[in-house]
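<context>
A single protein, sequence plus fold
<entry> Chain with its tokenised backbone below
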Amino acid sequence: MQKITGFPQNFLWGGATAANQIEGAYNIDGKGLSSADFVEYIPKDQRTKDNHMEVTSDFIDKVKSGTYNGHFPKRQGIDFYHTYKEDIKLFAEMGFKAFRMSIHWSRIFPNGYDETPNEAGLAFYDDVFKTLKSYNIEPVVTLSHYETPFGLTERYNGWVNREVIDHFMRYAETVFTRYQNDVKYWMTFNEINIINISPFTGGGIISDRLKNPLATSYQALHHQFVASALATKRLKEIIPGAQMGCMLARMKHYPYTCHPEDVLKAQQQDQMNLMYTDVHARGEYPNYYMQFLADNNIVLDIKDDDLDILKQYPVDYISFSYYMSLLSSHTPEGETTAGNLMNSLKNPYLEASDWGWQIDPIGLRVVLNELWDRYRKPLFIVENGLGAIDEVVDGTVHDNYRIDYLQQHIQQAKKAVQDGVELMGYLAWGPIDLISMSTSEMSKRYGFIYVDQDDYGNGSKQRLKKDSFNWYKQIIATNGEEL
């Protein structure tokens, strides 16, 4: 057997973004409001909880009435809607092979339930794909990246209602047909597990309208699973040869100690994280999940053909985000640290980012090997990066800390490939500074490209290359050989 020494020649290097975090232009050319347009920026010293993305009915009423004077940064983004040609040119300068983006559902169907699509929205993405193609950059497109049209929230309370499946399918079929010559790689729902952590973020659901929020969030998840399988079916019919992936926020759990109860707890929490890819890749609900539902007195409304649909149309590849690992204990104690929508016990062997995310490069290798062993489907790292406070000095940002973070993670990804993992690509999160998903901050920066804009949207919007820009350019040029 030939020894694997590095990344394959067709490896998809690039970066990843979301429409709601970069585009702006929230009320231009017929676009409707989405869930992201109601997530406000709250200064760190005024935050009262870690999850800032849930909203209440009263809050929505105040915002809609115009009596609430808040700041909603995702409405502005970084104005990619008007700067996409210049930004994509910078991506091409780095040598991107692929660019992950999402289509803003409410730019195509402003209310989500409209009968006909918005041509201006379709034309915008026509030109984005044309620009990418001119640089031989492969688009990797997410259908729903925390961008549920707000009209679906008003009419149905989001994915709680099964009728949203039909509206999603109309949207999916529209973009599959329109962009069938432009896009080969698709994904259905970004970090689909977030619907059970933040229902408004993941499914446009206002939880205070629900009698049983926990049970209803899992019912809404079922609707998304069915929609994902049906979209996979239609993709194959409309674009033969195209590939559909799922997308998971991978949250690897380690036992806090070697106590068997901690080991069991970590296994159980890992299983609940992997349940989402189990359904997408294996096409069925695992027994441990059915036991979880029973233990919590949750009875899903599953229609006659639903399970057959899940089984018949699994995804082609598994994509995921990876930023940190977490600790599990049967008796939580000790210091905690913040995570992406999560809190975890502090791992004494790991350093943490400015936002308390525990930095664990070796965990990426562990995750890749576990996913490969579990599914034997191609894997795709579609988010990995470091959110940090950057300072412009002499017209640039000397972000060696970001280079170090990415370098360590890419090294571990390379080792996983050498282990035998089939890895399609590596897409760094936020190749250009963008609005943070979890906190709506601009000061939490990820990019190789600095955007002169503060947390309140002030600034010239000028783009500057950070030190990491040329470093990543070299990584791509050498296919990860010069690490």
Notes: The mean pLDDT is 95. The chain has one domain: 12-477. The radius of gyration is 21 Å.
